[in-house]
Every structure is written in structure tokens, then in C-alpha cells.
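Need Glycerate kinase's 3D structure for a figure. Predict it.
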Amino acid sequence: MTRVVLAPDSFKGTITAADAAVSLAEGWASVDPTATFVRRPMADGGEGTVAAFEAAVPGARRVPVVVDGPAGSRIDTSWLLLPPTTDAPGGTAVVDLASTSGIELLDELRPWDADTTGFGQAIAAALDHGVSRLVVGIGSSASTDGGTGMLAALGARFLDAAGAPVARGARGLADIASVDLTGLRTAPDVRVLTDVTNPLVGPRGAAAVFGPQKGLADDGITQVDAALAHLAQLLALDPALAGTGAAGGTGGALVVWGATLAPGAGEVAELIGLADAIADADVVITGEGSYDGQSGDGKVPSFIAGLASAAGATALLAAGRITDDSDTALFAASASLTEIAGSSDAALAEPARWLRDAGALLARSV
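Structure prediction for Glycerate kinase:
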């Protein structure tokens, strides 16, 4: 009897990690009906982080909240409350930026006006609930606001030369003349999940590397980079610190608040008990929407492959697409939904269908 652990990341914008795991299991079972399955949907701090904890932690409960989304309109979302523990008697809140201030919430890019206010509002709601610990995922950001929206929602004030609040988003960064943190709420134990090690500024910084994904271009990148450097001075933040450039500088803002940055995939895996699940597995299947040249740098698939190897299990990969520059040598076999479906459009339209086919294909491969 084959024991299969299913630990995919979400296929961004198309199917959740939990649903991807279900589809892969259905496909595998069609070939190997005696197999047993353990589902441990994964995340690295981006889209699907809350869902991964919800699926893995007994007693986890969604708490609804209404926040200002990245387009400025009110949105209904939620944060996750984990049960109390000895070291967190008030429980642990899991809040992700993707579902509060994420790029997937936009109908069109807003490089200058999108911000992280909603993320901060959700964190504030969790603090109001009385949680002892925060776990926050900061992938899939829509903005490059240096985390000012988040800090403002927690009580900070960003003021221009006349003492008035600056505009939200990257638009207001250059106008910040002073920062008032006297009203900033006290941080509990805060762990930040991120797969990004970029500094705040410079050629590998938030504006230069991630700004184009959010709509920044040419002179705009230069302007925002300079404004982030000035913000770092006002906040007494080292802009060269690894991870401060995550989520448009939100990583740096969280450090200022007192949080600790941690590798997203590793932290999620530890908190959901993934290593124990894999310890006696025969096969481990992981995956993500696009497995490319960056996937070997701390992303979920490469991390899972390492755990599988250490446990003596066979690692397999299913991805929406697998690019030519990716390293598939980590896996005994791989399956591309784009290749199985015949086109990327077809794969994107019916991800659950093609993941079932991928599960069957991988079962036959071993």
C-alpha cells in the first residue's frame, strides 16, 4: 500500500492548495486505488497561507473582517484564529496580505495608489481579539508603499512638511517629512512568513525588482526607490537588511514594528507538522502554478523535495507550467498541466481536471 503525502502550494489565481491536493489524490487513486493519502496543503507566505493553516490545524476558525482593499474599496475577508497553546494562551492569529491587500484583488494595477491599509486593519482586528501571537504572510502584495498603510492602520502617522497626513500608497512616500510612532500599537510575538530575501532599496530592492509587477516603470522605479531609502532613514531601518524589500517594503515595516522575518515555506511546514507527515511516506507530491528558475530559491516545491529526500521518499512535481530554466532534477518525475491540457489557456480554465490527470500520470511514472 503506497502512502502518498500531498503538499502542493496554491496555483496562483486558479486553484487553492487544498483543492489541488484533493484533485491530485483523485488522479492517483484512479491508478492506485489502494493508496492512502495525507493532505498537507502548503504555502510560503503568499496566497493560500491562511488556507494551509486552516486545513492542517484542528480547531482553527475563520474570523470575518471588513477592510480597505488595495483599490480603496471595502472588501469582506477573514483572518484565522488558531486554538490557544501553552506559549500562546490567547491563541494565534494567521493573517495574510494576499487576502487583504493582495494584487489578485485588483481589477487593474494601481502602482501609485494601492497600499497595505487593509492588511494592517486585519492585524488590528486580530489584536483587538486578544491573540498572543501573530503569524503573517506577506506574499502577493499589490503595492510598493513601504508598509506605511499597514503601520498607519496600527497607529503610526506619516506626515508632510506641513504636518498633514500624506497620500496613501507609493504616491505619498516622497512627501513624508516626519514619522510619529507614539500611537503605534504594541506588537505581540510576530512571525513574518516570506520567501523573499531582497533588501529594501537598490538594484535588488522592492521598487527595482518587484515594482514592475505592480505597474511601476522607468522614472517611477527610481523615484519610489529614493523615497523608500528616505523612509528607512526616518524609521531608523537598515535598508540593506535581507527581507525588508518583501511585499513592497512591508517586510521592513514589520521589522520596525518588532516582528521577526522567517523563511515562509519552512515556517509553514513546521507549524503544520509536515516533516512528521513525510517521515513514513513512500511518495510526496508538491507543485505550484509556475515552476521556473526562481522555484529553487526557498519556494515550496524545492523545500518539499528536500524534506522528501531526507525522509527517503520519492518526490514528484505537478505544476501549471514548467519552464526550460527550472531544475526538475530534484524530482523523480514531473507533470506540466500546460503540456497535458495542450495549452496554458486550457490548463488555467480547468485546473482541477488537469491536476487529476497529472496525479494519474505521476502514479504511472513510479
